[in-house]
Every structure is written in structure tokens, then in C-alpha cells.
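Milestone M4 deliverable, item 7.
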Amino acid sequence: AARELITRVSNRLNEIGVRFNLNEMYIGTFHSICLRLLEDHQEFTRLKRNYTLFDQFDQQYFLYQRIWDYRKLPDVELVIGEGSPWSQSEQLLKWLNKVTEEAIDPLTLASARDREVQALSWCRVLYQMQLADHNALDFANIQAEALRLLTEQPAVLTKLRGQLRYLMVDEYQDTNTIQERILSLLMSDTHNLCVVGDDDQGLYRFRGATIRNILEFPQQFNGQCQ
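Output delivered:
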């Protein structure tokens, strides 16, 4: 997807005779751009050299190998069920990715009244520790680590804002909470953000996407949105 975007932009610039170094632009999916931010500023992240990037199968197998650690947590059966270790790791993966995509803090989960939500907070904390110990990163945590970088390193955020003259997001109806927060940080005080989308075509609700982002977009700018 990222390569296709770059090809289309490059072809269009050639058509209209504009000379521009595409390496100076951030073109790609949210995940590819966030990964680039992490690699460009790796010294400010928890990642060490030669880190491992998990796809979904890698992530589930990683959890499967450690499912006994999770079974020791209080009320964890309310999160992972009573099935086989593989099915339990599948359930665990689903809920861990869900809270990551929604950018929910583990302390918020731990303070909930529901036992299953509290149990999920312990799972989340343990999983993050295991990822750090193995210098690993999964697909959902690419964005979570990028959000942490922008939030905890104001100098990095200021530098990026200076480099980004405009922000444009396509298929905005398929964005989720964590992506909205990343955009809000990168956007300058001039509100240099353009989004394109159709709330009738929301396709990625299974990974936390919400059409609320596009429906409520104008409300973020106190009537200044055009």
C-alpha cells in the first residue's frame, strides 16, 4: 500500500512537471510512517538494534509459548476463556490489540470495577514487559510506541512539526483512536490537516476503527473546519 502511494504521487508530480525529493515526504500507511518515525529516532525508544517485528502469526505464537505465565494472573480466564492454549492465545491477542488500538492506559483498565477489565490490565502489563525483554514489536504496538515517542519527547515532536507543512489522510473513516491522537500531535497550530473519507465505507472496525473520527472531525476546530 505504501509503495503504491509513492508510485502514484511520483507519477502525478512528473505529469505536472514538479521536481521534488520524495524522500523528504512521509508517504505511506499509518503503520509504515510510524515505523519510520521509530527508526529515525530509535535512541528515544525502548527498541534496541536488530529488534524483531511480529506479524499476527508471530504475535500469537509468542503468546502461545508464554500462555502459562498469563494463566497465573487473577481472573485471567475471564479474558482468555477455558479452551486450548492456542485458542486462549488467540483470545488474548484480540484483546491486547484492542486496548492498544484504543490507546487505553493500563492504569485506567486496572481501576475499572469489572474483574475481566482488571484482568486485562495485568495481561497488558505482562505482555509489554515480555515484548521489551525480547526487543520485539508487534503491528499494533508500532503506533503505540510512536504515540509514546511524540508524547514523551517534545523535541522530536517540535522537529517533526517543522518538517511537515501539510498533513493529508485518505480513508479517514478507517482510522482508530490511536491514529487520531497521533494526528492531533503532529498537526501544527495552523490546523494543517486535510482528511478524506466516507462514513458509509467503514471497513476496519475489527481493528478499532471508528467512524466517530470522521463524523466528529469538524467539532475539533471550533467552527474553523472547511
